[in-house]
Amino acid sequence: MLLSHLLWRAGIENVVIEQRSREYVEARVRAGVIEQGTSDLLRSLGLGSRMDREGFVHEGVTISNNRSPFRVDFKHLVDRVVMVYGQTEIQKDLYDSGVGAGWPIVFEAEDVQLHAVTEGQPFVSYNVGGEAATIEADYLAGCDGFHGVSRHAIPSDVKREYERLYPFGWMGVLSETPPVSHELIYSRHPRGFALCSMRNPMLSRYYIQCVADTDAASWTDQQFWDELRRRIPDEAASSMVIGPSIEKSVTPLRSYVAEPMQWGNLYLAGDAAHIVPPTGAKGLNLAFSDVYYLAEALSQRYSNGSTTALEDYGAKALRRVWKAVRFSWWMTTMLHTFHDAGDFEHRMQETELDYLAGSVAAQTAMAENYTGLPF
Ligand code: PHB
User: Fold this and answer.
1) Count of CB atoms within 10 A of residue 354's CB?
2) Model-level pTM?
3) H or E element, residue 367
4) Of ligand 1's atoms, which has the minimum distance to the CA of residue 205?
5) What is the residue with the minimal CA distance to atom 3 of ligand 1?
6) Distance in Å, CA 279 to ligand 1 centroid
7) Which uninterrupted H or E stretch holds 200?
8) Percent of the chain scored above 90 by pLDDT?
9) Measured from the CB, is residue 33 less than 6 Å from ligand 1?
10) Which helix (DSSP H) or strand (DSSP E) does residue 227 occupy?
11) Is residue 272 packed enough to be buried (19+ CB in 10 Å), middle (13-18) or exposed (0-12)?
12) Predicted confidence (pLDDT) per residue in 120-151, tens digit
């Protein structure tokens, strides 16, 4: 939807083909932290007013090691901040504005298939309400997520995949309670990682590291709250307001990159090409930088006929992708309990946190990455 906006603003006709219904997309609980560059981009498109009214600027985060907290002050270290404003809310703002402008979005498209990606006239076929349809285009943008069809159009002898599966998941709970802290708390603890996050002053989002294939329904709310409170600083544990969960789910953690991000007239963006574990809050932000590069490249193609930027798209996007993959992997490795880790790995993890707690240089590197590398 963001790519669609950027293209319309540049006068480039496009159609969004969405597998789900608008209601489904607007009800999904998704990520919540956006980088400064992401919020600046939304503002520049005139999509920042509800975000600035209802979102929350965070100038730092708390990191806790074995219940002992320290703060990383982004504003002070790099003069940049992040914004807590749900991806679901951004999606609503994009739909409202796109539908309001009359830009075409096909919802509930089934059996989407890409055709003639490398030669001839590219087109997409799909069914809506039992009716077959096709759309021809100069270019196809594969923004259909990790489980979408686009990436599979790249032949396996061309595609190179890089993957790290982590031996645990995150169990997330959303509850209508005031957040325990006005900023996020990332906690390392021998029992496992925990994260205290939020959506608004009466909506909290909490996560605990769990066994990868845990069935969320097998945990009662009380078990979740008890486990969460064991892993976070005392002060937070004792002041936390608990209540019934309104959503509880388990997410696996993985790092994944597929190269190249371009094949013929198909350009991949976001989770269609790469996945990061949620620890660095990078997933949505990376999709934004990908489509920003892609929109710039397409604008050049339609304004002066040059395809140079389109040819460079994959390499340019991947340089930023790999840095976010590194940062998310670093945060994940530093903060989680790896049950197969030996004594040496354990000491390295302790030392990484001790160094971060005491070094302005280390905190500056974290702040630079967390608030977002430039794009
Ligand atoms: C969230 O609020 O859902 C959230 C925040 C920070 C993360 C991951 C998820 O690193």
Assistant:
1) 12
2) 0.97
3) helix 360-370
4) 2
5) 31
6) 7
7) strand 194-200
8) 99
9) yes
10) helix 221-231
11) buried
12) 999 999 999 999 999 999 999 999 999 999 99
| Torsion of the alpha carbons at 374, 58, 95 and 296, rounded to the nearest 10 | -10
Distance CA 247, CA 139 (A): 38
Residue positions annotated with a catalytic role? 58, 186, 278, 282, 370
The CA-to-CA distance between both ends of the chain, in Å, stands at 19
pLDDT band (50, 70, 90) for residue 250: very high
Provide the percentage of residues in the chain whose pLDDT is more than 70: 100
Residue 312 has which token pair? Answer: 């460079």
Q: Is the pLDDT of residue 31 over 90?
A: no
pLDDT at 355: 98
The verdict on the CB of residue 253 being under 6 Å from ligand 1 is no
User: 209-237: b or e for each residue (b if 16 or more CB lie within 10 Å)?
Assistant: bbeeeeebeebeeeebbebbbbbbbeebb
Return the amino acid letter for 262: Q
pLDDT in tens, 345-370: 999 999 999 999 999 999 999 999 99
